[in-house]
Write a structure and sequence with these properties.
With 66 residues, the protein is mainly α. Helices cover 86% and strands 0% of the residues. It contains three helices and no strands.
Length: 66
Amino acid sequence: MPERFYLAEWITLHAVPEFKDFVEWMRAEFDREAAAADAAARARAEAAFTDALALEARFFAAAYEA
């Protein structure tokens, strides 16, 4: 585990079987939809996912900088 308590807490929060099962289900859903989507739809989904990750990183950075 990381030395920083908040990183360890984040890992612990997400390391439960129910969360893992949910993530695997969601990944399968995205893969299924992506297989049926055209290139433009996949590019929009990728951009939305990238934006969401950036926002999540900014959220946590702001929380710990405050």
